[in-house]
Design a protein that fits this description.
Layout lengths: L4 E4 L2 E7 L12 E5 L5 H7 L1 H15 L5 H12 L2 E9 L8 E7 L1
Antiparallel strand pairs: 1-2, 2-3, 4-5
Helix pairs in contact: 2-3
């Protein structure tokens, strides 16, 4: 079985660790999503859009083509998460002051 797939009570779930450099932007240590299937063949087919979307969002964020807020919205839409504004702050890499961000809450 692939390292990003886990089985809980016979149902498969996607599990992707949050990259260390993005922990302040993505609040969870892991991104998880139930794939709502017990069939490994269907699981492998249904997980591909999630993996592609997560990978694309992380790449765009790292290359600064999108803002952290846009990345959170993208992941929220992809994984079906609600977005909530919390009082967590992250530092800008270009020396600007700290600013509040929207965080995804499951």
């Amino acid at each position: 079985m692939s390292s990003y797939l886990i089985s809980r009570n016979g149902h498969y779930h996607l599990r992707v660790r949050t990259p260390l450099d993005l922990i302040g932007i993505i609040p969870q240590a892991e991104i998880t999503r139930s794939l709502k299937t017990t069939d490994l063949r269907k699981t492998k087919a249904s997980v591909l859009p999630y993996l592609q979307g997560i990978s694309q969002t992380v790449t765009l964020l790292r290359s600064k083509f999108i803002t952290p807020e846009q990345a959170q919205e993208s992941l929220g839409r992809l994984l079906g998460l609600r977005l909530t504004t919390l009082s967590m702050y992250y530092p800008f890499t270009d020396g600007r002051r700290l600013s509040p961000v929207k965080l995804m809450m499951a």
